[in-house]
C-alpha cells in the first residue's frame, strides 16, 4: 500500500466512524428503523436457512427428554448428521478447518481421547498423566521453535491453551499485567499490523488494552517504520505474524523484534498458523524469515497444535522466553471459601483428553512426519499458486507459501466474492477477506490428496467464466461483503453478525 492508498484508507476509516455514529442515530428514527428491520429480515432468512439446514428432519429438543433416549438412537442421529457434513472436508473442498483428517489418524486421536476422557488438568493431583502430557507438549513445541538457540539467559517455557485465540488472549493479558506490575502502566497499548488476527482485537476489548493497528505495506507485510513510530512509553508489546491469516505472508519479525528489544518491551510472534510448518519448511530448504526464539527480541510465540500440529480441535501452545514473563499469566486466589485456587489459563476445568490426544499426535507423527506433511503441503501450495497466476482475470496477493489469497485483476470487471460464491456452488468453501477484497485458501493435508488441486483450478477457471457471463443475483457472500464495503462495520454489519449469532442458538 503506498502513501496515497494509506491516506485514502485512513480517510475511509475516519468517515466510516462518522457514518457509524450517524447510522446509530438514524436507526432510532421509526421510519428508518422499519426499513432497516425489513432489510435485516430478508438477509437473516437466508443466513438462518444456511445455519439451520436440518429443520424438522431430526427431532428438535428445547427441553430434556423425559426419559433418556437409547444410546443407539442418539448415536444414529449423530452419525446421520456427521455423515452429511464430512464429505465436503474429507474430499478437500474446504480451506483450512481440518488440517489432517486421514481416517486412521482420526481413529488414533479418538482412542487417545477415550483413554483420558474423564480427566481434568485442573486436578493435577488426580491425573499426573495429563500434567505430564501438557508439559511435554510445551517442551516439544519449544524445542521446535528455537528454545535451545535462544541464548543462555532464556528459559523458554509455556502453557497449553484451548486454541490460538486463547493463546493470544493470555499473551496480551500477560504483557498488560507485567507492565502494570513493573511500571505502573495503566494505559497499555499494543502495536500490531492490520493483518494481525482478530484475537488481538478481542484481547484489546476484553482486557481494556488499546490496539494500534498499523497498515501493512504493499507486500502485505507489517510496516516496520510505521510500527516503530506508533510505539510510545505505554506500549506493552509489538506483534507480528508468521504467517498472517489473511494473506499468508510472514512479517519482518527480526526487524520488528529489534524495535521491541531496543525499548525493552515484549514482542509476540503469532505463529498459530505457521508454528508447525515453518520450522520444517526451513529444514526443507525454503527461505524462511526468522520468526522464533532464535530472534533476540521475540519474547512470546503462539503455535497451534490443533492446526498444522494435526491434533484434534482444542489445543494450542503459548511459549514465553522466560518464567519471569510467564508468571504474569498465572491466576491464584488464596482467600476464597472454595479453597486455595489457581489456574494457568482462561478456563477452569479443562478436557484432559484433548491434551492427551494432542500429545499422542505429536508422538505418533514425529519430526519425519511433520517434514513429510510440510513438503506435501508446500508442493500443493506451489501448484495452486502457479495455477491461479495463470488465470488472467485473477491476481495473487503477496508471495505466500501455502495460505494463498487472490483478488480480481480488475475489480471493476470481476467481483471476487461472486467467484467465491460460484466456487461454493461447486462445493468449495473458501475464506472471504476484505480490505482489499479477496479470497483465500489455506492448504492442508486434505488438499494433497490426488486430484484435489487440479479440481480446484478447473473449478476456479469455470467459476470466473460463469461470473463474467452472468449478471449478479441475490444471495451468497457477495452482498454481505458488498454491505461491509459501503457501510460502517459497527453499524449494519455488526447488527447482522449479532443477529446471526442469536440465530445460531435458536432451536
Ligand atoms: C495467524 C492466526 N492467529 C490466530 C488464529 C486464531 O486461532 P483459533 O481459531 O484457534 O483461535 C488463527 C486462526 O486461523 C490464525 O490464522
Automatic annotation (TrEMBL):
Where in or outside the cell it occurs: the entry states: Endoplasmic reticulum membrane
The family database entries (Gene3D superfamilies) matched by this protein are listed as: 6.10.140.2150, Aspartate Aminotransferase, domain 1, Type I PLP-dependent aspartate aminotransferase-like (Major domain)
Highest taxon listed in the record's lineage:
Bacteria
The entry's keywords: Endoplasmic reticulum, Lipid metabolism, Lyase, Membrane, Pyridoxal phosphate, Sphingolipid metabolism, Transmembrane, Transmembrane helix
- GO cellular component annotations, sorted alphabetically? membrane
**Database matches in InterPro entries:** GrpII_AminoAcid_Decarb, PyrdxlP-dep_de-COase, PyrdxlP-dep_Trfase, PyrdxlP-dep_Trfase_major, PyrdxlP-dep_Trfase_small
SUPFAM superfamilies on file: PLP-dependent transferases
Q: Name one Pfam family in it.
A: Pyridoxal_deC
Q: Does the keyword Lyase apply?
A: yes
Q: Which residues carry this modification: N6-(pyridoxal phosphate)lysine?
A: 307
The record gives the membrane topology as: Single-pass membrane protein
Q: Which cofactor does it need?
A: pyridoxal 5'-phosphate
* Pathway info: Sphingolipid metabolism; Lipid metabolism; sphingolipid metabolism
UniProt-listed GO biological process terms = carboxylic acid metabolic process; sphingolipid catabolic process
List, in alphabetical order, the Gene Ontology terms for molecular function in this entry: pyridoxal phosphate binding; sphinganine-1-phosphate aldolase activity
Family label: Belongs to the group II decarboxylase family. Sphingosine-1-phosphate lyase subfamily.
**This protein is called what?**
Sphingosine-1-phosphate lyase
Where does this protein come from, organism-wise? Enhygromyxa salina
User: Which lineage do the record's taxonomy fields give for this organism?
Assistant: Bacteria, Pseudomonadati, Myxococcota, Polyangia, Nannocystales
Amino acid at each position: 500500500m503506498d502513501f496515497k492508498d494509506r491516506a485514502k484508507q485512513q480517510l475511509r476509516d475516519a468517515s466510516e466512524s462518522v457514518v457509524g455514529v450517524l447510522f446509530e442515530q438514524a436507526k432510532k428514527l421509526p421510519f428508518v428503523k422499519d426499513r432497516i428491520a425489513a432489510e435485516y429480515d430478508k438477509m437473516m432468512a437466508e443466513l438462518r436457512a444456511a445455519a439451520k439446514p436440518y429443520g424438522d428432519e431430526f427431532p428438535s429438543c428445547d427441553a430434556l427428554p423425559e426419559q433418556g433416549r437409547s444410546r443407539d438412537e442418539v448415536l444414529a442421529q449423530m452419525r446421520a448428521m456427521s455423515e452429511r457434513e464430512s464429505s465436503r472436508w474429507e474430499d478437500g473442498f474446504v480451506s483450512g478447518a481440518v488440517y489432517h483428517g486421514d481416517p486412521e489418524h482420526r481413529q488414533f486421536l479418538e482412542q487417545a481421547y477415550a483413554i483420558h476422557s474423564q480427566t481434568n488438568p485442573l486436578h493435577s493431583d488426580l491425573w499426573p498423566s495429563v500434567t505430564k502430557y501438557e508439559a511435554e507438549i510445551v517442551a516439544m513445541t519449544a524445542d521446535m521453535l528455537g528454545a535451545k538457540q535462544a541464548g543462555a539467559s532464556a528459559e523458554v517455557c509455556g502453557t497449553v491453551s484451548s486454541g490460538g485465540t486463547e493463546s493470544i488472549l493470555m499473551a496480551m493479558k500477560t504483557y498488560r499485567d507485567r507492565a502494570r506490575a513493573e511500571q505502573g502502566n495503566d494505559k497499555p497499548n499494543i502495536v500490531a499490523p492490520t493483518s494481525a488476527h482478530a484475537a488481538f482485537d478481542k484481547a484489546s476489548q476484553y482486557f481494556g488494552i488499546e490496539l494500534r493497528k498499523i497498515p501493512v505495506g504493499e507486500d502485505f507485510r507489517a510496516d516496520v517504520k510505521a510500527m516503530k513510530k506508533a510505539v510510545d512509553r505505554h506500549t506493552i508489546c509489538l506483534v507480528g505474524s508468521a504467517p498472517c491469516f489473511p494473506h499468508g505472508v510472514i512479517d519482518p519479525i527480526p526487524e520488528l523484534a529489534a524495535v521491541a528489544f531496543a525499548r525493552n518491551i515484549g514482542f509476540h510472534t503469532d505463529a498459530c498458523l505457521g508454528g508447525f510448518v515453518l520450522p520444517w519448511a526451513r529444514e526443507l530448504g525454503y527461505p524462511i524469515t526468522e520468526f522464533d526464539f532464535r530472534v533476540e527480541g521475540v519474547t512470546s510465540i503462539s503455535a497451534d497444535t490443533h492446526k498444522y500440529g494435526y491434533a484434534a480441535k482444542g489445543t494450542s501452545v503459548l511459549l514465553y522466553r522466560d518464567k519471569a514473563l510467564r508468571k504474569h499469566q498465572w491466576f491464584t486466589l488464596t482467600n476464597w471459601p472454595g479453597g486455595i485456587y489457581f489456574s494457568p489459563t482462561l478456563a477452569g476445568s479443562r478436557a484432559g483428553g484433548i491434551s492427551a490426544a494432542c500429545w499422542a499426535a505429536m508422538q505418533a507423527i514425529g519430526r519425519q512426519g511433520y517434514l513429510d506433511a510440510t513438503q506435501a503441503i508446500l508442493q500443493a501450495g506451489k501448484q495452486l499458486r502457479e495455477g491461479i497466476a495463470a488465470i488472467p482475470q485473477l491476481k495473487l496477493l503477496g508471495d505466500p507459501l501455502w495460505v494463498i489469497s487472490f483478488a480480481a485483476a480488475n475489480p471493476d470487471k470481476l467481483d471476487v466474492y461472486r467467484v467465491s460464491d460460484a466456487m461454493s456452488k461447486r462445493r468449495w468453501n473458501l475464506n472471504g477477506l476484505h480490505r482489499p477484497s479477496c479470497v483465500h485458501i489455506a492448504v492442508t493435508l486434505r488438499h494433497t490428496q490426488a486430484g484435489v488441486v487440479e479440481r480446484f483450478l478447473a473449478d476456479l477457471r469455470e467459476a470466473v467464466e460463469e461470473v463474467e457471463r452472468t449478471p449478479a443475483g441475490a444471495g451468497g457472500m457477495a452482498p454481505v461483503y458488498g454491505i461491509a464495503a459501503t457501510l460502517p462495520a459497527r453499524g449494519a454489519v455488526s447488527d447482522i453478525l449479532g443477529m446471526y449469532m442469536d440465530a445460531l442458538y435458536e432451536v
